Amino acid sequence: MKEFGYQIYSFQHAVEAYKIADILAENNVCSAMWADWWGFKMEAYDGIRENVPMVHKAGACAIVHSDSDLGIQRLNQEAAKAWADGRRVGIDIPQEQAWVWLSANPAKSLGIFDKTGSLETGKNADVVLWTANPFSTYARAEKVYIDGGLAYDLNDPQTWPVGDFELGQVGEGDSK
User: Fold this and answer.
1) To 10 degrees, the CA torsion angle through 30, 32, 38, 41?
2) Per the CATH hierarchy, to which homologous superfamily does domain 2-115 belong?
């Protein structure tokens, strides 16, 4: 899919990507989509909740993303919503395949899959271990490893990040 003399690798906010999923697949173009944002403005009226799984089923590179600062913190749940919407209409994608919407496919769209996006020898990877299935709303990050080091441990408050709104505040049990 050559446009204006350069290669297109990814479409963003592609709420109607399901309409051209076969063309995306043929041209190895990724589509970054919201899990269920549709109908909120004129250009999103034809968006459907099954968009992501339909693009995946067509063999195209599907990506789940969010513009929301809250949604991005729960991107695993965004992917779970898209996965569940697909199952509801008979598109049965194994969860491990749906996980590529958050890992391998974004790396492919950025042209860095040779460096990251999957757990393989020689690649860079940050890893999250979950308390439950990461597609569950009850799952919490238990341990987070960044660049090979433990950066967060659910059971060790010393590793918990401090938000900007907490700076300068007296913490629970602190005397000052």
Assistant:
1) -100
2) Metal-dependent hydrolases (3.20.20.140)
